[in-house]
């Protein structure tokens, strides 16, 4: 197989000069976005509110159709016919920032069953899959409860179940910890880690740069509808000028690490740590 063909197979989502405006002739929300996402990667999208993160996600799922440019999923441009959109939404699942924008069925079970039943999958198969997903996400006790009566964290779990039951290749999470308390934020992070270990490509919008540094394989910084920087987390988090442009601060662990090196507590040349646990190991080892 030619090298270019192999690279193409490894790219699950690609954007080519994607532009989108909410109003004709208005300020573009996406202004020539081009990027590639490799299969199986964990990618954090960061940027100030209004930088284009959510709009880009909606284009990846086919909810928005770019004014110009192309979004490709698994090497194929999105087909905006009804059949084509059903296919892309099976492959690319989107979990909205506000779960109330996604949940509409009378009960949790009906909510999760809507997608596969709409595809004409046999009822017995749908039932088995729903039971598996509810057990996986630990929401079986809520099965008969009205979705609108759940807590914010429980609603987020149900919206993820909506997506997982479709067996997607990609899951997009738009600020999954938004408005959650500490308990449900931890639970949400655990669910995301389980999904990543199964090889699902995960795109996540987050404002938590400390979490992104430790969690992500790549960070995409967006600014005014453009990709400002896409690189490994350490490279992005050490790019102070780019961080400042996107209203981000340098992660606390990198600030402390730099000071310890400057004061001679740690030796120069160490790879910057991505977590306080890693920094503590450096100190304990006397490096």
UniProtKB/TrEMBL annotation:
The keyword Metal-binding is assigned to this record: no
GO CC terms, sorted: ATP-binding cassette (ABC) transporter complex
A GO molecular function held by the record: ATP hydrolysis activity
GO biological process: cobalt ion transport
Subcellular location: Cell membrane
SMART domains in alphabetical order: AAA
Protein name: ABC transporter ATP-binding protein
